[in-house]
Amino acid sequence: MPDILHVSGLRVTRGDTDILRGIDWRVQKGEHWAILGPNGCGKTSLLKSITGYLSPTAGEISLLGKRYGHADWRQQRLEIGIVTSALQASIPPAETGLETVVSGRYAQLDLWAHPTRKELAEGRRLLKFVGLSYLEKREWAHLSQGERQRVLIARALMVRPRLLILDEPCAGLDPVAREEFLRFVEAVARRRGGPSLILVTHHAEEIMPAFTHALLLAAGAVYASGPKAKVVTSRRLAGAFGARIRVRTAEGRFAVAVAHRRR
């Protein structure tokens, strides 16, 4: 099987600024990755590059065995799932939970297609999987932030993706809702036959036990990459964030304490 994702020598330059430089990264089948780093380190730009929304200046990107520039990336996007809060503003307030989920089959925001009975049944099954069957007829405007994020995951799973990208999915969640959502992400990661996951986060505490690897960025470059236990350490986070950081682990979770930022 080819790599799920292979990035080699990726550089993105705009004007005189190197947004990303020399990025080498490989995601293999069965791996789940967390991307973390300080604000402005290039996390969002890396996501935009691998999904074809930001053209690289140099380097190569291979996604699901297809090379960027040699394949139609619009079709490639139909084989991956993306959950980002940026989608939420484009979903009509009156669209129901089931309609939002089924819209993933058509890669549409504001569903206008006429789903088949089979597609509606699959949408209901996925709503049940994310624990939200009761939202089938509830309008988007009346969903909580946590419910919206789980509906968007169900939507992404409608295409049975081999890769699921979660872009800061816990933003805006209160502590209880965040923990409930992270436990749900853990269930998705452990689902037999499920997709590889990429979680973008500022917080090491959000890296659940099922995640196997971590990519740590700083100033547009890879600061560390590999098995999470070797990347999410006090020394490496301190170097990337420029602060005195202590990392502890308990029951497969990380806890981070920050002393003060170095000048």
Q: Could you tell me the radius of gyration in angstroms?
A: 19 Å
Unreliably modeled segments: none
Distance between the termini: 47 Å
The major β-sheet equals: 6 strands, mixed
Helix content percent band:
25-40%
What do these coordinates show?
The protein has 263 residues and is α/β, with parallel strands linked by helices. The protein is built from eight helices and twelve strands. The protein has helices at residues 43-50, 73-77, 97-106, 117-129, 145-157, 175-189, 228-231, 234-241, and strands at residues 5-14, 17-27, 33-36, 58-63, 66-67, 80-84, 163-167, 196-201, 213-218, 221-227, 243-250, 253-261.
Secondary-structure map with pairings?
Elements (H helix, E strand, L loop, with lengths): L4 E10 L2 E11 L5 E4 L6 H8 L7 E6 L2 E2 L5 H5 L2 E5 L12 H10 L10 H13 L15 H13 L5 E5 L7 H15 L6 E6 L11 E6 L2 E7 H4 L2 H8 L1 E8 L2 E9 L2
Parallel strand pairs: 3-8, 3-9, 6-7, 7-8
Antiparallel strand pairs: 1-2, 1-4, 4-5, 9-10, 11-12
Helix pairs in contact: 3-4, 3-5, 4-5
List descriptors.
alpha/beta; 263 residues; 12 strands; 4-stranded antiparallel beta sheet; single chain; globular; 6-stranded mixed beta sheet
Brief write-up:
This protein is α/β, with parallel strands linked by helices and 263 residues long. It has helices at 43-50, 73-77, 97-106, 117-129, 145-157, 175-189, 228-231, 234-241, and strands spanning 5-14, 17-27, 33-36, 58-63, 66-67, 80-84, 163-167, 196-201, 213-218, 221-227, 243-250, 253-261.
